[in-house]
Amino acid sequence: MKVLVVDDEKIKLITLRDDLREANYDTIAVESPAIGLQLVQNEHFDVLVTDLRLPKMHGIEFLKRVQREQPHIIVIVMTAYASVETAVEAMKFGAYHYIKKPFSSEELIQMLDKLKMLHGKSKQRSQLKVPMRGRSPYHHIIGKSQAIQDLFDLLENISDTHSTVLIYGEHGTGKTLVAKSIHFNNSRRYQPFRIVNCSSVPIEALDQELFGDKQAEGEFEQKGTLFLKDIDALPDTLQFKLLRALEGQQLSLDRSGQRNDVRLIAATTKNLRLKVQNGEFRDDLFYRLNVVPIFLPPLRERVEDIPLLINHFLDLFSPDTALHVAPEAVEMLTTYSWPANVRELENVIERLVTVGNGAAITTDDIPLELKLPTQVSLDETLSEISFQEIIRSTERELISWAMKKAKGNKTQAAKLLKMRPSTFRDTLAKYIDQIEWQL
């Protein structure tokens, strides 16, 4: 059985971990509920042993969030406030049992032994559970395309190293997922995974967060993995400080400021090499960051992965139903260009699951904006075409598309666009000589 123990009492935590391992229980012990949540998102556990009083998160809230990730996990709560009310509250939210503090390791081992006997075949249970939850060593990266298979091969080679990684990709392509995958396949996986967005934090706060001050240490003086999003937005002054940190130089006059055992992963949506050529980014920092570059393709370039992603998000948002997407709807979703990539597809599937009322999602359920036959590129056209011209062009394209889909049936075409038949006929009359819809 694999056991996760979460308790902020460090001495007790280490003692429990060592005693459980000696009793042949595969045990991981952490002090922070946040790290505990990261672990259950990426690894299977049979049993969770957790205190009810935890820093920054109440034990009941932690219990509920863990069970959303692994619904069948067996939970034993530790409490120094052992009362009927406490036990009932914990069990109400799915705890199997509770154990009163102070207790000996032997008491907990006896409880685990009983669980092992009652629930037996824990190895088979684990093997059945992992595919059901869709877990993988790659933190929910889904795909069968050659680009994703190449990505898996690269991650296998680089994850358990110390090399700095620079991830390139459009918004929504999964840069954070890739960074998390690297972290959780590295020896640092039991340490924090921290994210700092360089484009959304004021420069003074960003300086303090990354490099610290007299009162507090910065991210580079911590352990674990540091993921810097939008690294291209890092101001010039902080680019120099980041370079010094990567070179292991002193960051502060008041502390040694040496870089601790932190692995840096950065990400950008820009062509960073071009920004270097234009003098917008330090070349020496670029080469320090670009040790292992990873390029994530946009979703439109790996359309064979879209059906897999659709099923993945259906399992995520509707795990207890037989809801599926009809083949015609899958085809429609596959032909859409997905400018916001996987994130946009996830949002669309969540919307369809939320508002749907049938056993299948059909083409009628697909949002209208995804049915547009062409996408207007505002950056390219607004300087030359007026707002009214864009509206008329889009309206004409929609009418033409609906008439083609309805094979000339005006009533059916109006339904496709969710328009009144009379309004549709009036609109059609404006463009009757400009559209091509006859088959």
Care to describe what's here?
α9 links the parallel β7 and β8. The chain contains 19 helices and twelve strands. The chain is of the alpha/beta class and 439 residues long. The chain folds into four domains: 132 residues, 3-Layer(aba) Sandwich (Rossmann fold), CATH 3.40.50; 150 residues, Rossmann fold (3-Layer(aba) Sandwich); 67 residues, Orthogonal Bundle (Helicase, Ruva Protein, domain 3); 54 residues, Arc Repressor Mutant, subunit A, CATH 1.10.10. The protein is globular.
Question: What is the terminal separation in angstroms?
Answer: 64 Å
* Uncertain stretches of 5 or more adjacent residues: 121-136, 374-383
Number of helices: 19
Report the biggest beta sheet as strand number plus sense, adding barrel if it closes. 5 strands, parallel
Principal-axis shape equals globular
- Helix percent reads 40-55%
Considering the chains and any ligands shown, give keywords for the structure.
single chain, 439 residues, alpha/beta, Rossmann fold, Helicase, Ruva Protein, domain 3, five-stranded parallel β-sheet, 13% strand
Quick take:
This protein is α/β, with parallel strands linked by helices. It folds into four domains: 132 residues, Response regulator (Rossmann fold), CATH 3.40.50.2300; 150 residues, Rossmann fold, CATH 3.40.50.300; 67 residues, Helicase, Ruva Protein, domain 3 (Orthogonal Bundle), CATH 1.10.8; 54 residues, Arc Repressor Mutant, subunit A.
